[in-house]
Specification:
The structure is a homodimer.
Chain A: E1 16-24, E2 30-36, E3 42-48, E4 53-60, E5 65-72, E6 77-81, E7 84-86, H1 93-105, E8 107-109, E9 115-122, E10 131-142, E11 159-163, H2 165-171, H3 179-197
Parallel strand pairs in A: 4-10
Antiparallel strand pairs in A: 1-2, 2-3, 4-7, 5-6, 5-11, 8-10, 9-10
């Protein structure tokens, strides 16, 4: 399957990008790459070139998850998601996660509690190169109202929701219907369950 | 946050699409929509308009998962994923899942075994409207070699891998680094674990 008629290995790994066209620069960077394979076959490859994102699973001292309902225009429905957003130029990944948490929910970490990495994961690699760094934040607390980080978010009908792990798991396939949210819950689940088993004040 | 200065609710749910431009029609349909909010604010909304996909978690009679390693040009690396692909026009969701299974792995369901839905989930709703119908296929068996369903797949360096549930879980964050794969494993996990507990021949 991966050999040319002459028996040469023809993996895209060894392809050359001979031309790049930026079709749309902003707010989404949509590009066409002219890709030439090792056997000479050339094709146009289109994708959305996205900056990395940070996503955070915020857990309250009571063991509840802090999530956001919002209206997604591309889906024409409200969905339940975790705070997430683009990492700004020069910004650290943890700083981005905490900024998105504060902006989108109004919550922040309580003093002395740590942010732990849950890993980094891509989404939809046939259409984009989106790479999301996932974190879990222990013992978050409400510091004020959500702020929103862009004009457009004013229209997203966002609402902050505290939800138990059990209720979140029961909502998978219902209001929780994003691959990212389902993946994040499964990554966070062992830690949240462990925290919920701790004795009070422990 | 969701009120205009006059106290009118300004959710994007009530927005009007006043114009649609197809910037690229194929192989990825990239569109711009001119969206007018209820308060009169208008903005350009860009996204990849994608057909629905079907994804299948194939499980062998031995309880192993059938996965695919492939080179992803957008990520510049090999990754471990489940068979998945676009649902063709007029094709049923289950038919699409089984077709992708056969094309990408050469596996098919053994006689009498069923395909069960795991739910439908979107990916990356800020950039696309991709909606993937996930299934689990019980007792799949190898029917022949993988075929590939497009010229371009010849270059994807695809290889079929049988992997235990335990090894797959241990690979999350390593070779299994896609939100879709992590979500699918978490959705399939209870069923696979249950099947693995059955007595032999049961």
């Amino acid at each position: 399957l991966n050999k040319s008629a002459e028996g040469v290995r023809v993996s895209m790994q060894d392809a050359r990008i001979v031309d790049t066209e930026v079709i749309v620069a902003a707010p989404k960077r949509f590009v066409r790459e002219r890709v030439e394979m090792p056997d000479g076959y050339a094709t146009d490859w289109y994708y959305v070139d996205t900056p990395p994102s940070a996503l955070v699973v915020p857990v309250t001292a009571d063991g509840n998850l802090v999530m956001i309902t919002q209206y997604r225009h591309n889906l024409k429905r409200h969905v339940l998601e975790f705070p997430a957003g683009v990492v700004e130029d020069g910004e650290g990944l943890e700083d981005a996660a905490l900024r998105e948490l504060l902006e989108e929910t109004g919550y922040r970490r309580a003093k002395g509690c740590c942010l732990r990495p849950l890993g980094a994961f891509y989404s939809l690699p046939s259409e984009t190169n989106k790479y999301t760094h996932a974190f879990i934040a222990e013992s978050v607390e409400q510091a004020g109202p959500a702020q929103g980080d862009a004009v457009i978010e004013r229209y997203f009908d966002m609402e902050v929701v505290e939800i138990s792990l059990a209720d979140a798991l029961a909502s998978v396939g219902g209001d929780i219907c994003g691959m990212e949210a389902v993946a994040a819950i499964s990554l966070a689940r062992p830690l949240v369950a462990q925290w919920n088993r701790r004795p009070e004040g422990g």
